[in-house]
Amino acid sequence: MPEPTIEERLQKRYILMTTDDTLVEAARAVTPEDWQPVPVSDLEQVGEWNDILLHRFLILDADEAAAFDPVETVRLLRREYMVNVPVIALGGDRGLQDELKMERADRFFERDQVGEVVSAFTGQYDWG
User: Are 27 and 54 in contact (CB under 8 A)?
Assistant: First the structure.
């Protein structure tokens, strides 16, 4: 397994786990030019655990139960891959959010706050 280059490590990108094109477009609309959103519906599309670490945070569409299991996604990320990339969940009812908290999702917002979330977190993780 080749080591990522310094250039790869400094790229500003985040994972957007959803199949909702409207949500993807809303996120892209406020994503700074030097950042890259990576929309996926499965963590395996990103690659191995070390490929996930090349992303600064993950935005998880908690209302996507038909496409993927949000709780299982966070469980896989935290327990199997043992990766501590920040997970920001959008949507979901109180019960689902409680389950996501138990699996160590970090922050919770409503889906319509995607623009605020992208702006805030790309600003917070804008090092390098």
Answer: no
